[in-house]
Amino acid sequence: MNHELYSRTMNTRKYLFALIIISILGISGCTGGGKKGGATTLDWWQFWTDPAIKPTIEKIVADYESKNPGIKINLTDLTWGDGHEKIVVAFSSGTAPDIVELGSDWILEFSSNGQLAPIGKEIVTDTGKFYGWPPAIYNGDIYAFPWILGTRVLFINRGLVKQTGLDSNFVPSNWDQLKKLCYKIDSLGGGIRGFGSNAAEKHTLYKKFLPFFWSNGGRIISEDGKYAVISSDKGLDALEFYKELSDSCGMIDTQRRLEDAFLAGKVGVIISGDWLLKRIRNEKINIDFVTGLIPGPQYPGKSFVGGEYLAVSEKSQNKPEALDFIKYLTNRENELIFCKANFSANPSNKETAREKFFTDDPALQTFIMQMNLSKFPPPDPQWVYIEDIIETMLENVLFNGRPAAESLYDARNKIQKLIDEKK
């Protein structure tokens, strides 16, 4: 035997074996947490970084770790500015965390690519206890757990309503009453406008139009997912109604400035979320207001709903532990703790929604009621592109003078092209 050749061969094999081991260890370290010092580490990426709520998140994590000494939660903060891109890169590169917080319109993007673990069998007994399952379902299975949801309602300045001669408790229950109210407030003059109409603000404008569109029976995509149907007569009627409000008595501005104007008594009716309730409370703003359900042509109407969801990476080595932590985050007590700290109006847990914190507050009750009359965007992996098409269409009609019917038809063709490209 050639000992030099044998020695070189053995050294080469040892070198290759070492490379394989290093590679395996490297991959293991990049696909969520693992076992470290006898404990299981779960990596969790989340978006709640506001100083008002972050300590609550950390406290819930610490409480879980104390009750489960074999588990360590490694918390990583994301921002809405670039969080989606970081998640995309992590899944693509095999470095995704065990648990990831996702916006409701992102779930299908990752579940349809096989990047999220199906959890339906493990949580089947929980589904009736929570709101918000539609965005989490793909091919008959569930891929994310609803956590904190969010819908939009009417905010009405009661002082301005009283100045019009209407009863200060008046809340419109249909489109005609909404138009009447906004016109009357607008006629007060003095720079006061009747309705807050959103400007061309990405990820915001379409959420204010879709409630009117859905309330009138409009659909974006057919039930079987094969056809774009946004340019129906019902869709056109809704768009023309929204444009009439915007043109005739609307203050057109960003969401924040509309809220500033509402709080300053310069606009009578706006559509907003629970963050405005939190702002009124935290800033101790003295304003006489009432919340109301989004009206339809005939009462009641529908609103837009989205939310934050918790999903498990398909490549996680700790799926049972990850799901157990998700169930802990979403239980009645912890959702109540979170909602009190953040003044959130729409917990996913139905038991939490029946707590005194919600039932004793009329404004929060409006949000709970609206949740049951709200719709999620149609589940589609390409929703982010569909959303952009709808917002461009709205900008053209509301601000650039393009005919509503023509713009709807053009949007329909663009959405249909996206559908056809999937086939």
Description:
It is a single chain. This protein has 423 residues and is of the alpha/beta class. The protein has two domains: 30-150 and 306-375, D-Maltodextrin-Binding Protein, domain 2, CATH 3.40.190; 153-293 and 382-422, D-Maltodextrin-Binding Protein, domain 2 (3-Layer(aba) Sandwich), CATH 3.40.190.10. The chain has helices spanning 3-30, 54-67, 83-93, 107-111, 120-123, 158-163, 175-186, 205-215, 233-249, 255-263, 274-282, 319-329, 332-342, 350-353, 356-359, 362-371, 383-399, 404-422; strands spanning 35-36, 39-46, 71-77, 99-103, 137-138, 141-142, 145-151, 153-157, 193-198, 250-253, 267-272, 289-292, 303-312, 374-375. Strands 1, 2, 3, 4, 7, 13 and 14 form a seven-stranded mixed beta sheet that branches. The chain has a five-stranded mixed beta sheet with strand order 10-9-11-8-12. The protein has a two-stranded antiparallel ribbon with strand order 5-6. Helix 2 (54-67) links the parallel strand 2 (39-46) and strand 3. It is globular and about 70 Å long.
User: Segments where pLDDT lies below 50 for 5+ residues?
Assistant: 1-30
Write down the overall mean pLDDT. 90
> How many domains in all?
2
Helix tally equals 18
Gross geometry: globular
Helix vs. strand class: alpha/beta
Give me the Rg, rounded: 25 Å
**Percentage of residues in strands:** 15-25%
CATH architecture verdict of the largest domain: 3-Layer(aba) Sandwich
Task: Predict the CATH topology of the largest domain.
Answer: D-Maltodextrin-Binding Protein, domain 2
**What's the CATH H-level homologous superfamily of the largest domain?**
Periplasmic binding protein-like II
What's the end-to-end separation, in Å? 62 Å
How many β-strand stretches?
A: 14
Biggest beta sheet attributes: 7 strands, mixed
